[in-house]
């Protein structure tokens, strides 16, 4: 993926303020943003997805400008064509598995109908082994099944990038290893570019062809980005600047 980000935003809540100031460039398909809690990882991912608008800067995905404050470009989330896997999966509790996945295709304000069938939705239901529970609600699924539904919803519309916020954090340790392997195989199969955020060194090891570390640098609460690559990666670390 070609990822080119240079964003700045100050958020205020009461007397607290937090400044997000992140620059990163990558041409890898597997990118990991790593760092402690509160360092700004989720905010960075939300800005890429169009769920948070930076005050200034730019975001380019695969050569397409999705945000550029100077040029007045700020594409709506749907127009950015990114799949987003939220930390808690954010499945709709009142929609069954099939409807939740179909929601990934929908740009409508009303929910997909329970009986509606889409070829792509059926494909991912089969690929993730969810046939037997396609009519069930999220509350009646295991953690791993819920994660598969959320992942299917994120990729069903064939996004140009997949954004994953702590995808394994809600799983117990043994399932975490299985799901990590599944996601790794899926990324290789689909060759879908991804940005994954995590605290977990094992995720960095598995997915971090390009690793960006966000650090909270007291006292001004500015975020610093630094990067490193796996030893066998040809790309250079110079392409991520540190402010
Ligand atoms: N709307 C907001 N207004 C003010 N501050 C905010 C807002 N949203 C997030 N923050 C603050 O921004 C900082 C970064 O939040 P963010 O969610 O990006 O952290 P994170 O690195 O993803 O943490 P975690 O690993 O715990 O999920 C936190 O200190 C948070 O309290």
UniProtKB/TrEMBL annotation:
One Pfam family this sequence matches: ABC_tran
A GO term, aspect molecular function: ATP binding
Keyword list, A-Z: ATP-binding, Cell membrane, Membrane, Nucleotide-binding, Transport
UniProt region (Disordered), positions on chain: 220-243
The ABC transporter domain, residue ranges: 2-241
Ranges of Polar residues composition bias in the record: 233-243
Spans traversing the lipid bilayer: none
UniProt-recorded name of the protein: ATP-binding cassette domain-containing protein
Organism, scientific name: Vogesella margarita
